[in-house]
Amino acid sequence: MVMGTEQSIAAGKAARRRAPLESHREFAPAPDRDPVGLLLSQAETRVPELVAVRHGRMLVSPFAFFRGAALPMAADLATTQDSGLRVQLCGDAHLANFGVFGSPERRLVFDVNDFDETLPGPFEWDVKRLVASLVVAGRDNRFAVAGTSRVALAAAARYRKAMRQFAAASTLSVWYSHLDVEDAIARFKLQLKKSQVRKSEELAAKLRTRDSTQAVAKLTTVVGGQREIVSNPPLIVPLEELAAGTSYDMLRSLVSDYTATLPPDRQHLLGRFRLTRVARKVVGVGSVGTQAWILLMEAEDDDPLLLQAKQAQPSVLAAYAGASQYDHQGERVVAGQRLMQAASDIFLGWQRTTDPGGYTDYYVRQLRDWKYSAPIERMGPEQLSDYGELCAWTLARAHARTGDRFAIDAYLGGSDKFDQAVAGFATAYAEQTERDHAALADAVASGRVQAERGV
Predict the structure, then answer these.
(1) Where do the domains of the chain lie?
(2) Which backbone phi and psi does 322 adopt, to 5 degrees?
(3) By CB count within 10 A, which of 14, 69, 287, 359 is most buried?
(4) Number of C-beta neighbours around residue 191 at 10 A
(5) Dist. CA 34–CA 72, nearest whole Å
(6) Between the CA of residue 291 and those of 126, 236, 237, 454, what are the distances in Å?
(7) Which bin fits 98, alpha (ψ -120 to 50), beta or left (φ > 0)?
């Protein structure tokens, strides 16, 4: 039942009495806390030979560790104050999981772009993970303490103020709101320096080339008249080079059956293509070791298409925020993405494959469609602050779409108490992340954890 505005406001104020704004500053690590143990528990369901690659990538820096440590943070967030105001969470809302990609209308939009951990839960869990990621990144980039604090405060304030704006807007306005990159460039031309406008327009033009066609050119080659996926082990390994266990028949069935989860027009479009080649691909940091396949789709006298089928496991939030309503983990990811994103990939769908050992859930999307992530490691304080505010606005819009925006706005209020509290939490959690990163390095040195660096 949808509550009226007055009821929602009352619920938000009641939540503030239950979980005061200042309480979001608190972070007290549990005495038996073992982040390395939690990471090792995830290895049990991953491709064995890729687990060391995941750990090696997490060793690169505290921020790289943070990216892969969604499960330890979920366990930590479960020990903090809970507002009780639930939304569809991204579940892994660090700043590297936002970026630019192409909408179905062929516009460049900025949005959340990773939903492996999506699940309903307390809105502040996403906010705390986002702001903590900014502080970890700022410390990695050697910002002064004051500069990092300003970045954190700016992001938390942007989330709060954006939620107030969405609370004042109509439901349809909230649903249709999005951040269109090209519109933003045009809107701010008068305020930007000519050099900034030129760089923004050049970036937009470059992003339009980062589509599936470019991915085909980069990842495939033609041998004897047949297009092949280029082998680059362990990052990309054609199916023919893998040990027995996965077959083209299984993956053809995956593609054929997944098509039924698309709208009829997309089914018709995809029906023009057939699966010709497959390769396993290593993706991201936290996702390394899950099954991820590049699917080369070809049509008669047409450009090839690259899809990605990625394994979907239960969200890291499930043990702390409650199990998903979806039995199929791929459907969970797709449903969450469609709820939170302003525009989703036209080929986004899900499917389950069966094998002698059980089943594997997947979601499927285009491998690349104008996708771009910002170079966080090269950002200065001002750039990181601006980028953090973009992420915070985007997160607030997603939460306003999926939760009670009136209650959340009433809970946050007009002061900066929430901003200060979350920034304080983020600083404490960044310090904890650095200790956890060191603990992983110690575990590798002792032989408890295997790590393969530089991959």
Answers:
(1) 5-83+101-208+380-446, 212-366
(2) 110, 150
(3) 69
(4) 8
(5) 8
(6) 26, 12, 12, 21
(7) beta
Largest CA distance in the chain: 71
Q: Is the dihedral of CA 11, 16, 17, 23 positive or negative?
A: positive
126: number of Cβ within 10 Å: 27
Helix axes 123-140, 70-77, angle to 10 degrees: 130
DSSP assignment of 283-340 equals -SSTTBTB-EEEEEEE-TTS--EEEEEEE----TTHHHH---S-SSHHHHHHHHHHHH
Q: How far apart are CA 130 and CA 109, in angstroms?
A: 19
Contact (Cβ atoms closer than 8 angstroms) between residue 208 and residue 214: no
pTM for the structure as a whole: 0.92
Residues 6+ away with beta carbon under 8 Å from 320: 74, 75, 77, 78, 121
The string of pLDDT tens digits covering residues 10-27 is 999 999 999 999 999 999
> Residue 138 has which token pair?
């700022």
pLDDT digits (tens, 9 = 90+) for 319-365: 999 999 999 999 999 999 999 998 889 999 999 998 777 899 999 99
Confidence of residue 237 (pLDDT cuts 50, 70, 90): very high
Closest CA to 239 of 225, 252, 224: 252
Of 255, 253, 292, 278, the residue nearest 47 (C-alpha): 292
Residue 38 neighbours by CB distance under 10 Å: 17
Query: In degrees rounded to 5, what are phi and psi of residue 30?
Result: -65, 145
Tokens of 247: 């077959």
Cβ-count burial 328-359 (b if 16+ within 10 Å, e if not): bbbbbbbbbbebbbbbbbbbbbbbbbeeeeee
Please spell the DSSP secondary structure of 54-67, one letter per residue: HHHHHTT-HHHHHH
Phi, psi of 298 (to 5 degrees): -125, 145
Q: Which amino acid is at 432?
A: Q
Query: How is residue 232 annotated by DSSP?
Result: B
